[in-house]
Design a protein that fits this description.
Elements lengths: L6 H25 L7 H12 L7 H27 L4 H19 L12 H24 L10 H9 L13 H25 L6 H18 L5 H4 L4
Helix pairs in contact: 1-5, 1-7, 1-8, 2-3, 3-4, 3-5, 4-5, 4-8, 6-7
Amino acid sequence: MPVKQGPFLTGAMVALTLTTGMVEAVSFLVLGPVFTAVQTGTMLLLSFALAGVAELSTAPCLASLAGFTVGAALSARFESRSQVRGHRWFREALLAEGVVLAVAAALAWGIERNGEPLTGRHYMVTGLVALAMGTRNVSALRVGMPGMPTTVMTRAFTALIGGSLLAVDARIATGAGNRVRRAASVAAMFAGGLAGAWLLHDGRLSAAVVLLFTAVVVMATALSFALVPRERTSEAG
C-alpha cells in the first residue's frame, strides 16, 4: 500500500531533501568529518581512516554506521507493521525521525564547531542523527518516488543528465514531471548543504540550532499530512 504520489508529496520530498543537506553539513563540519545520511561517504571515510589518513578517525564513522543500522532496522519493522494495520506509516515515521533529531539537537547543545576535540557526546549525536537518517532512507525507499530519494543524489543527477537533450537515453523515463522532480531533488540537496554550511560558518548558528531546525521541518512535514485530504496522501485502501 504505497503512499499516493502527487504534488503535495513531491513538495514534502523536496523539503526532506533540503534537510538532508543541512544535516550533512552539521555531520561533516562539526561532528566528524563524517556523514550520517550518505553512508557511501561514511564507508569511504572509514576506509581512509583505517589506512592512516591524517585528521580522519574511525570512531565517528563507526558511530554513524551503528546508528544508521539501528534506525534502518527499526524503521523497516515499524513501517511494515504499521502498513499491515492500515496506519499512515509515512507520517508516523517522519514524526519519529523528527523526535530523534530533536533529541540529537538537545544533546548537541554546547558543541560549537569543527576543530574541537571529538568526545563521547559528539559520537552520541552522530549516532542519533544517523539513526534518524536510517529511518529516513527506509521511508524514502518505501515511498518509491522516482528521482526523489531525499538522501542520495547520484541516481537522480545521472537520470537528470541521461534524460536530457544532452544524452536522450531511451531507457530513462522522460517527461516534464520526471525532469522537474530530478532537478528539484538535486537543487534541494545543494541548497540544504549550502545553507547548513553558511549557518555554521563563523558561528552564525550552533550545530544544535541547525539540527533543531531540521527536526522542526521534518515534524511540520509529517503534521501537514493531516491537513491534506486522505485520498491524496494515504495508502491505497
